[in-house]
């Protein structure tokens, strides 16, 4: 029972960066732009956060800096794609390499340095609730922030006029432009904000999960997020279970020894990726009718 | 109506250049309030460019626009809309994957002066399409009498009078033709007629006073086109300025008040209704005098040349003789298919025959099951619920004897980055490879050279990339390749859509002159094209064959009637589920 | 003329990428000029350096082909890295099956190719049957492959004589590729060049090549004329995997002589970048591979010598691709503007005559 609670807690903590990345990518893709540089944005965000944390000691500043770093990468991608008209997929992949490279490059001096954790929500009364208490109700603030962002994004996309503009840009940019929708500005906005969420995701990995910076610490979570966007059918609410289940896989992997599972840790570390591949295949099998924004489908051609 | 009409919008010396050619050159045209003004010209003459300039999507390289006498520069489409110009594009002005309600909201927000974050509750009114009052600007089109010489001023003035105006018309939303459309239907589930209504209707609920319609009747039956024009006439009578771009002479000469003819980007004629007739306009459009232009309504209306008419008559005669001894190619008996997508009706009890040396037309809307039928004919595997498909004689369900000309060569059919030679040779698998053998290279060169000459493909250099060809030449390459390949059966989808007259003529002639062993199936949304080409027309609706016309029965009116009757007879249950309820498979 | 423009674009992009690197270097307090000069010197300046560069060209070129061939049919294969790892596993596996015998080398090569191809067949099948995005699957399989190698060298394949270090048993001397010129370079570099030329010939001269290109250029047309599109998707991915697997063989037999976790310096990703820089212009593959390999090997040695982060190679490669793409799109845009301006000028001339 204790262990289950521990795993649940770890699942939520591990799933949060993935959740943030999924949300960021959903926003970008809803406006019609695929951002394959997500992993690079997360890496840059993580590295920047670690730096600022070590340099200033202020967690808040570090989180903001990480988000801004991600946003800058997103802005670059959006500008290259929308203004300079470079192919969307190529631009994203480029920025993945550049982002990851720069993160590794500038992060070299601080590799392995220990970092403090994030402030967590400790409502002592709630903490006493068995099972739920430690697992769900005393996570760090970014966890709750992520859930709030998911709710807000859902509301904006499906209940406001701005959301309609975003969807229009993502479904048929030409007609939207003819209708006076400022497609370019919307796309710039969505991709930048989306990438800033990815930067925040990277920040959470270093501060809230691993408590250090290493080159390659993102370990493909950004790519997993892009895959899970398809599974979540571009809906912020569905992103929650996808992200947390994935987090659960990571939690199982980390706590396997304690649970008495004696599989090699290397084999266990394959599990999240294999499951994601299986989930993607399942997503393609189930829904004959795709919920993919039409402009994204055009880009994939 | 006032005697001296005021100018709503004018183009003065507008010139627009594209890489390689001038789309329009020093175009000057005046469009008046209260009139239906026809903009005529063949495909590629520059009409669509003018429409885009009017809509604010493109800006002229030289020249300017005037609205109500004032020089305006339309920086973007939103600005054009705010100044009162609303455009319905040929390719569709709605977003297919969103609902009607969402599309209307998208249009409606332009009427409001400020963009507000409103909850997107859209309600279905009793009378049909309508925007909730909070979003819809409170204005109704006023009578012509109150329009003064400066309509721009007038437009600006009315934005201030929030609460004035007829209380009755404020509460009642706009709708056209008495059709009710639910708001949560996806646009792609609508019929073409419903789409047009939504496209026009949503413009009427905002500031728009000048309507520009690009080929509004392209996918409509003759009866529906009539209805549409009646609505446009009533709008014109209420003061709107209406510009219609069309290439369908018969219907436009009946309804328009004024005509401007464009050829190769230049204005070559301006006529009023009194002085215009079909023949004169056709001569202006084509740029030549042809004494044998037909006057009659249903026969070969769109094959505007004497040779076309003669060939057509000869074919009809020949076909009469051959019906006595048909040589069957394909027989479908009682075929019903499984419903594969929510938009496409499954076939239900279809009996269908194809004989050699026939040109058969299939008339049917999107979603009528025509696509499934075409796929069956093409030999693709379609799951059958019941019935059987029988290929007679030596032809099996192999693709190598069946040719296919899809509607849009760029999307499917040609590969832009390959050369003309490679595109022509794509069906001849043997010719494509082994390029190191001289004999192979020679036979490939000979093959390609022969086709280029035979089909008059320009430019004649086989090494030219296919994407640099004009639309007409692209179609000719496709035609050459498929005709060369298809000994038994040729499927042509919208064979002359979007082509200039010369190319369209060419394609039609070639189809009509088919060799005796081949059967050609033409699927077209253009009823006139079916009339011009086909010996026999099968009309499909909601998966059933609702009519079969042959010989003299093949007329515009008859086909149109069959289509319209069918879509009405299935009841007014337009609940947005697309194909409706079929008694057969589901 | 087109070729000259491509080369000019590349050189310009290289200059810009190095400028970007300089900026990054300045921000960490290093002198850009000396660093860049030492990079070039280490890559091309000496016989040893040149041999190292050419040594690295083998896997990079193979991985570039591994990405370029599927790209012809419209598939994105970022999985070169993982396929290379599987090829390495296959090599060692084959060796353990056959032992030190006459068939050794051929089975090793076969093992590498088979396993590399198999690794690419997974995304191939998923794409073919279910339509799953192959870019993501190949990427995920990279991580799986790396974990697999780690598992094997820590466990089943660990050399008992290695005192706990994770690596497999060393290769028997007969299996090691003969070094030439007194350096680590082996004849594999020539073989790889031949392989590349053969592939180019197939692409341009055979029916398969034309059909493959057609699939990549316009899928609907391809299926319309009866080309088996899905099989081409699958086949091109498997071919790519086999080539990357071969790179794995070369790393084992020619460089490392055993299976270790650092069997690859990111060759798969570098090859992918090279392939995308070339964009179907196969003649650029070899020179670009050499350039990028030079970058990798010099960054590697500079890391040891002067503490330059190895990630600097990644930065330059990413920036290089970025600027190549930017250059290509700028050129296209400029051509368009020029064409429009030409038309307008012509019109002005004619109207002034009237």
Protein architecture, described:
The complex is a heterotrimer of chains A (301), B (586) and C (354). Chain A has 301 residues and is mainly alpha-helical. Chain A has helices spanning 2-30, 38-56, 59-83, 88-107, 124-127, 132-136, 141-159, 161-171, 173-178, 183-209, 221-231, 236-255, 265-286, 294-300. Chain A has one domain: ABC transporter involved in vitamin B12 uptake, BtuC, CATH 1.10.3470. Chain A has 14 helices and no strands. The mean pLDDT of chain A is 87. Chain B is globular and about 70 Å long. With 354 residues, chain C is mainly α. Chain C is globular. In chain C, 52% of the residues are buried. At the A-B interface, α8 and α9 of A face α2 and α3 of B.
Give the C-alpha Rg of chain B. Answer: 26 Å
For the largest interface, the chains and their residue counts are: A-C, 48 and 48 residues
Low-pLDDT ranges of chain B: 110-178, 292-304, 570-583
Order of strands side by side in the largest beta sheet of chain B?
6-7-8-3-9-10
Beta strands of chain B, count: 19
Biggest beta sheet attributes of chain B: 6 strands, mixed
Which percent range fits the helix content of chain C? over 70%
Quickly count the helices of chain B.
Answer: 18
Structural class of chain B: alpha/beta
Q: Please tally the β strands of chain C and state the result.
A: 0
Q: Unreliable segments of chain C (pLDDT under 50, ≥5 consecutive)?
A: none
The major β-sheet of chain C equals: none
Arithmetic mean of pLDDT of chain B: 72
Helicity level of chain B: 25-40%
Could you tell me the radius of gyration of chain C in angstroms? Answer: 23 Å
**Sequence of secondary-structure elements of chain C:** HHHHHHHHHHHHH
Give the CA-based shape of chain C.
Answer: globular
Write a brief structural summary.
The complex is a heterotrimer of chains A (301), B (586) and C (354). Chain A is an all-alpha fold and 301 residues long. Chain A has helices at 2-30, 38-56, 59-83, 88-107, 124-127, 132-136, 141-159, 161-171, 173-178, 183-209, 221-231, 236-255, 265-286, 294-300.
């Amino acid at each position: 029972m204790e262990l289950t609670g521990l795993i649940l807690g770890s699942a939520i903590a591990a799933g949060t960066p993935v959740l943030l990345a999924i949300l960021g990518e959903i926003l970008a893709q809803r406006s019609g732009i695929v951002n394959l540089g997500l992993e690079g944005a997360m890496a840059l965000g993580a590295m920047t956060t670690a730096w600022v944390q070590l340099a200033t000691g202020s967690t808040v500043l570090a989180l903001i800096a990480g988000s801004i770093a991600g946003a800058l990468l997103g802005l670059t991608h959006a500008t290259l794609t929308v203004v300079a008209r470079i192919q969307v997929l190529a631009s994203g992949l480029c920025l993945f390499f550049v982002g990851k490279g720069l993160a590794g490059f500038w992060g070299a001096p601080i590799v392995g340095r220990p970092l403090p954790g994030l402030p967590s929500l400790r409502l002592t009364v709630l903490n006493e609730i068995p099972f739920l208490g430690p697992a769900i109700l005393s996570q760090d603030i970014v966890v709750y922030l992520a859930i709030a962002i998911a709710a807000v994004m859902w509301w904006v996309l499906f209940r406001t006029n701005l959301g309609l503009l975003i969807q229009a840009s993502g479904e048929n940019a030409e007609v939207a432009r003819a209708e006076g929708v400022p497609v370019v500005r919307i796309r710039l906005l969505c991709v930048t904000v989306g990438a800033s969420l990815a930067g925040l995701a990277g920040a959470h990995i270093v501060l809230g999960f691993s408590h250090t910076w290493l080159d390659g610490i993102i370990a493909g979570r950004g790519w997993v997020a892009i895959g899970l966007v398809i599974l979540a059918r571009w809906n912020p609410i569905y992103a929650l279970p996808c992200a947390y289940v994935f987090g659960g896989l990571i939690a199982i992997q980390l706590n396997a020894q304690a649970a008495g599972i004696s599989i090699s840790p290397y084999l266990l570390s394959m599990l999240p990726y294999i499951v994601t591949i299986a989930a993607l295949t399942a997503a393609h099998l189930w829904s004959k009718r795709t919920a993919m924004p039409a402009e994204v489908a055009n880009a994939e051609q | 109506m006032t005697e001296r009409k005021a100018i709503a919008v004018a183009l003065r010396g507008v010139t627009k250049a594209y890489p390689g050619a001038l789309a329009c050159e020093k175009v000057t045209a005046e469009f008046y309030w209260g009139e239906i003004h026809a903009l005529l010209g063949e495909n590629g003459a520059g009409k669509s460019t003018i429409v885009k300039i009017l809509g604010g999507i493109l800006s002229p390289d030289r020249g300017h626009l005037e609205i109500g006498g004032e020089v305006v520069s339309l920086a973007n489409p939103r600005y054009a809309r705010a100044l009162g110009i609303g455009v319905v594009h040929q390719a569709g002005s709605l977003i297919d994957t969103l609902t009607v309600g969402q599309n209307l909201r998208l249009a409606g927000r332009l009427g409001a002066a400020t963009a507000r974050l409103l909850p997107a509750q859209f309600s279905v009114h009793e009378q049909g399409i309508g925007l909730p009052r909070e979003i819809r600007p409170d204005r109704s089109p006023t009578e012509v009498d109150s329009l003064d010489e400066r309509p721009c001023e007038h437009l600006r003035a009315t934005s201030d009078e929030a609460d004035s105006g007829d209380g009755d018309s404020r509460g009642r939303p706009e709708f056209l033709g008495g059709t009710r459309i639910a708001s949560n239907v996806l646009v792609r589930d609508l019929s073409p007629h419903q789409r047009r209504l939504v496209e026009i209707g949503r413009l009427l609920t905002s500031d728009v006073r000048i309507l520009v319609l690009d080929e509004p009747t392209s996918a409509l039956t003759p009866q529906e086109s009539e209805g549409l024009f009646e609505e446009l006439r009533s709008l014109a009578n209420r003061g709107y300025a209406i510009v219609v771009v069309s290439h369908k002479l018969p219907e436009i000469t009946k309804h328009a008040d004024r005509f401007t003819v464009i050829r190769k980007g230049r204005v070559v004629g301006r006529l009023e209704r009194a002085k215009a007739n079909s023949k004169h306009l056709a001569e202006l459009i084509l740029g030549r005098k042809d004494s044998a232009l037909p006057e009659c309504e249903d026969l070969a209306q769109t094959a505007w040349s004497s040779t076309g008419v003669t060939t057509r008559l000869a074919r009809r005669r020949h076909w009469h003789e051959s019906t006595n001894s048909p040589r069957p190619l394909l027989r479908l008996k009682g075929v019903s298919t499984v419903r594969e997508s929510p938009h496409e009706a499954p076939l239900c009890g279809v009996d269908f025959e194809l004989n050699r040396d026939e040109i058969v037309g299939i008339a049917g809307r999107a979603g009528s099951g025509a696509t499934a039928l075409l796929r069956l004919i093409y030999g693709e595997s379609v799951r059958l619920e019941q019935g059987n498909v029988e290929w007679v004689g030596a032809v099996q369900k192999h693709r190598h004897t069946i040719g296919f000309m899809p509607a849009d060569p760029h999307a499917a059919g040609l590969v832009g980055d390959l050369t003309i030679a490679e595109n022509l040779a794509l069906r001849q698998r043997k010719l494509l490879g082994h390029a190191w053998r001289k004999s192979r290279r020679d036979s490939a060169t000979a093959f390609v050279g022969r086709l280029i000459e035979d089909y008059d493909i320009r430019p004649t250099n086989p090494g030219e990339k296919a994407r640099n060809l004009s639309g007409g030449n692209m179609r000719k390459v496709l035609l050459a390749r498929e005709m060369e390949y298809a000994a038994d059966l040729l499927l042509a989808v919208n064979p002359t859509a979007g082509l200039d007259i010369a190319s369209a003529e060419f394609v039609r002639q070639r189809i009509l002159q088919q060799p005796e062993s081949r059967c050609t199936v033409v699927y077209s949304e253009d009823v006139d094209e079916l009339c011009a080409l086909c010996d026999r027309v099968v009309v499909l609706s909601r998966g059933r064959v609702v009519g079969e016309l042959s010989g003299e029965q093949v007329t515009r009116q008859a086909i149109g009637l069959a289509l319209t009757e069918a879509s009405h007879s299935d009841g007014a249950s337009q609940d947005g589920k697309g194909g409706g309820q079929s008694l057969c498979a589901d | 003329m087109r070729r000259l423009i491509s080369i000019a674009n590349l050189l310009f992009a290289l200059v810009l990428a190095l400028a970007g690197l300089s900026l990054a270097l300045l921000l960490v307090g290093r002198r850009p000029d000396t660093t860049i000069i030492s990079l070039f010197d280490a890559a091309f300046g000496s016989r040893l350096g040149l041999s190292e560069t050419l040594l690295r060209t083998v896997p990079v070129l193979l991985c570039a082909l591994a990405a370029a061939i599927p790209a012809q049919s419209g598939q994105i294969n970022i999985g070169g890295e993982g396929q290379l790892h599987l090829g390495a596993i296959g090599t060692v596996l084959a060796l353990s099956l056959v032992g030190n015998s006459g068939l050794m080398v051929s089975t090793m090569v076969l093992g590498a190719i088979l396993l590399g191809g198999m690794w690419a067949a997974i995304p191939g099948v998923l794409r073919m049957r279910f339509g799953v995005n192959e870019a993501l699957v190949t990427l995920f399989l990279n991580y799986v492959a790396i974990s697999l190698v780690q598992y094997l060298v820590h466990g089943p394949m660990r050399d008992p004589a290695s005192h706990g270090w994770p690596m497999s048993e060393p290769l028997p001397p007969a299996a090691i590729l003969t070094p030439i010129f007194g350096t680590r370079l082996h004849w594999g570099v020539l073989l790889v060049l031949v392989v590349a030329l053969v592939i180019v010939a197939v692409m341009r001269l055979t029916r398969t090549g034309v059909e493959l290109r057609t699939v990549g250029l316009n899928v609907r047309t391809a299926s319309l004329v009866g080309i088996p599109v899905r099989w081409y998707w699958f086949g091109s991915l498997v071919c790519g995997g086999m080539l990357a697997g071969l790179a794995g063989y070369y790393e084992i037999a020619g460089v490392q002589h055993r299976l270790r976790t650092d069997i690859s310096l990111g060759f798969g990703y570098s090859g992918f970048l090279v392939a995308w820089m070339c964009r179907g212009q196969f003649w650029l593959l070899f020179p670009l591979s050499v350039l990028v390999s030079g970058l990798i090997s010099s960054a590697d040695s500079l890391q040891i010598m002067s503490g330059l982060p190895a990630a600097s190679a990644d930065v330059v490669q990413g920036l290089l691709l970025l600027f190549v793409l930017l250059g290509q799109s700028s050129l296209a845009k400029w051509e368009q503007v020029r064409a429009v301006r030409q038309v307008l000028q012509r019109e002005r001339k004619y109207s002034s005559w009237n």
